[in-house]
Amino acid sequence: MTALVLVQPGLHTTVQDAGRFGAQAFGVPVSGALDPDQLRLANALVGNGAGEAALEILHVGPVLEVAAPSVRVALAAFDGALVLEAPEPRTVPAWRSVVLRQGERVRVVASRHCACSYLAVEGGFDLAPVLGSRSTYTRGRFGGHQGRALVAGDRLPLRRERASERGDLRLPDPPALGTGPLRVVLGPQDDRFEPDSIAAFFGADYAVGAAADRMGLRLDGPALALRGGHDIVSDGIAWGAIQVPGDGRPVLLLADRQTTGGYPKIGAVCTADLPRAGRLRPGDRIRFTAVSVEEAQALRRAHEAGLRRLIAGAMPAGDRAIDLEALYSSNLVSGAVSGFEWDDAVAVLE
Amino acid sequence: MNECGWPRLLPQGDAAIVVEFGDRIDREVSERVTALADAMRGAAIPGVVELVPTFRSLLVHYDPLVLGFPDVAGRARELLAAVRTVDRRLRLVRLPVCYDEDLAPDLAEVARLTGMSPCEVVRLHGSVDYHVYMLGFLPGYPYMGDLPEPLRLPRLTTPRVRVPPRSVAIANAMTAVYPLESPGGWRLIGTVPVDLFAIGRESPALLGPGDRVRFEPAERAAFEDLRAAWAAGDGTLDVEEVAA
Questions:
Q1: Regarding the domain with residue range B89-243, which homologous superfamily does it belong to in the CATH classification?
Q2: Which of B8, B12, B62 to mutate to test the interface with A (most CBs of A within 10 A)?
Q3: Do A350 and B180 touch (CB under 8 A)?
Q4: Which residues on chain B are in Cβ contact (under 8 Å) with A301?
Q5: Cα pseudo-dihedral A207, A209, A213, A214, rounded to 10
Q6: Digit-coded pLDDT (tens) for A278-302
Q7: Minimal Cα–Cα distance from B214 to chain A, Å?
Q8: B95-153 pLDDT, tens per residue?
Q9: Is the dihedral angle over the CA atoms B174, B178, B179, B180 positive or is it negative?
Q10: Where in chain B is the domain with CATH 2.40.100.10?
């Protein structure tokens, strides 16, 4: 059976696709890629459907070995690269596909400026879907590969025996990481907040706290005051919802968010900005700005059009020698990663 | 459409709309939520991704590239105008519970705090049919109410790091069963032999919003036999259709 073998797992590498929909009414979170844009671009570069499962790589990349005659891969990463070790050392930049051969070892250098990077394989991984999705939900211990983050020695089965004959692709104009405030639609419990707190929320800088994981990000900044307490009768939670628990510090909820919750939600990040929200790392500073739901939907349509243009602009990668070793060498020693609490960092208990 | 401005339709971001029927836990409110969820499911509106019923509201997730906010709100209003909560058939699910001390770590404390004997706590907990308001927190975790008044206690001050799977728990006006091992702060007064959530089954969650649940005491030997059957994958559930 053909496979990608994890020689080193990286910090927190999981299989994620576009998400598990249809089971939220049972209390099953959607999960899926923190950054659906990067997932889609990586898949496009290897000719996959937009929502095919790929490796989501957080902060520190894995080392992989090819146990197949060949496999085509593509890395989506804002400043990352694939460093091929033996037998023929070379560095392949992100935003292009490349064919790896049997026995080749590749170190995935993840982005330093973005929490998540994605490695897609042509044809996808041969993993059984759970409730219609291959996304890993680590708290529920299901989906992806054995319901958990990958560890050294894992063999991820490939659906294809070998890479197809079609050529490699690259994105001549890779996407930008994105800057500017995250745009928020107010509600549904904005009427529970003091007007001063709403002004403070949109007027201040927030920093992403150390408690940051796939479920969400705790934000350091002005504490927000509520009228009538911090408990509401639980209701449903959308992707990007910003809930405010008893300490007044907002929590921005991401891919592994709970389906329901009992804290007031001041607003929700608009879907056009969710990929950027998924890229945030502890220490990053952000601001929020308010938009109407109609504006948010117009932003989403424009965002979608931009993404489609990017994908349509993919062109043959050519066969130029790739040696950007020097360019990326500063990347090869990953920055110190400490202080993250990957388990239950922002879980709200019952 | 109703007294006090309910129901209210509010955006949650640009890909979800919440239809609120009230701001409190109330069985009649819950039944309206379930009725609208059924009606929307039946309408199969293209672009509606999924529905999440909760105590007092229905969250409708939709694809903003297919439907605009006014479209979803309009369809929801049409369905609200037509929806009826009467003449539904309900499922009554009987859950066997073993209340032995090792399977009920907080039973003695609950008895002490409520001034009852453990037997009285057990009898009272099993004395009503509970309404499943919603599933949330964990896959398959049912929020069921309403707990008889004398049993209502706040959550533990310090949550447990590991609540064993299948624990029957109480907090405030609710009772629940933890489907999976999890951290948790509700008080544990018994254990069921039944797996409330299992992937690979036709319906991974055993209970759904609108179901009725009755807890029935089980002797240790019967509990162990049932557990063995569920663990082997051939557990069966005692379900009866009843009038609302």
A1: Cyclophilin-like (2.40.100.10)
A2: B12
A3: no
A4: 64-65
A5: -30
A6: 999 999 999 999 999 999 999 999 9
A7: 20
A8: 999 999 999 999 999 999 999 999 999 999 999 999 999 999 899 999 999 999 999 99
A9: positive
A10: 89-243
